[in-house]
TrEMBL record:
Species whose genome carries this gene: Candidatus Schmidhempelia bombi str. Bimp
Keyword vocabulary terms for this entry: Endonuclease, Hydrolase, Nuclease
Listed name of the protein: HNH endonuclease
A Pfam family of this chain: HNH_2
Gene Ontology molecular-function annotations: endonuclease activity
Segments forming domain HNH nuclease: 76-128
InterPro entries with a match to the protein in the record: HNH_nuc
């Protein structure tokens, strides 16, 4: 299968995914953002075909990034949720702010339950370098309703700390 066929197949998958989002089957913050990201990858002449395919697969949450994260985090480290359909391969340093290597680096991610992923992406949650949960002042009153234990402490490896520092400085709302 050549690169053009793979890209066409992925575009069909995006259309199917869009339909699922519209029907409320999947929740994605913006299908336009997803499409825009994939188009940017397709049009990046500095990338070879293999890298483009890996990045597109990763952006769709199905590629090497997710596979590596599942091995590291077989469950959400915050909630303990194990059901794969409820877990998101979440970048610590967001996709748009990453270099190509950072996008595929499993140290730049966690497998998070969907609601924890949303809180993390919006800056309502983050982690200290020791793994202690940080909760934004903006959601302190609601965090218990979301079944997130305020005393959560997760394991953080050394290579993940630089991404968490970036997240705390650029995303987390104190």
């Amino acid at each position: 299968m050549d690169n053009d066929q793979i890209i066409n197949d992925l575009k069909k998958l995006i259309d199917i995914y869009s339909t699922c989002v519209d029907k409320g089957i999947f929740v994605y913050s913006s299908i336009d953002t997803l499409t825009s990201d994939i188009n940017a990858i397709e049009n990046d002449d500095s990338l070879n075909k293999t890298t483009k395919n890996q990045l597109i697969e990763s952006r769709l949450g199905q590629g090497k990034f997710r596979e590596k994260l599942i091995c590291i985090y077989p469950e959400c480290p915050v909630t303990g949720v194990k059901l794969g359909a409820l877990l998101r391969a979440s970048h610590i340093k967001p996709w748009r702010a990453c270099s190509n290597d950072e996008r595929l680096d499993p140290n730049n991610g966690f497998m998070l339950a969907a609601h924890v992923d949303a809180l993390f992406d919006k800056g309502y949650l983050s982690f200290e370098d020791d793994g202690s949960l940080l909760i934004s002042r903006l959601c302190l009153n609601d965090i218990d309703k979301l079944y997130v234990d305020k005393n959560t402490k997760i394991k953080i490896n050394e290579k993940t700390k630089k991404y968490l520092q970036w997240h705390r400085e650029n995303i987390f709302i104190r």
